[in-house]
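re the bet — no i am not wrong, look at it urself. input seq straight from the record:
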Amino acid sequence: MLNDRSDSAIMAIADPLMDNLMQASDDIDFERHVRDFTPRLKALVRDDGFARACREFQGHFGKYGERTPVAIFRRKDPVAVVWRQSCEESTDQLVASINIVEGPGDTYLVDHALVY
């Protein structure tokens, strides 16, 4: 199970998932952004809302910068990872988080993601 893995093994899963989310948001690429979402999360996110949110975020903070791990939270099903997130146009320290669940086969899916 995912929550039985070591911190480094969880980060090896979480970092590429979050890298994709961040880059797809910077590029305003909806299809790439949702490619690793659970069906539940895909049903909540719409292309037009995604694009609007990305433009608003970039207008305020710029594109995503460096991310530093803060904590891993092991739960029964999802594993949550939290990072300190920087952005190009702001000195604010933001919080980036992701909930990861096991998908079919040997895959992992994003069931929640947020930057605030």
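see?? The two ends are 29 Å apart (CA to CA). told u. also The chain has a mean pLDDT of 96. so pay up
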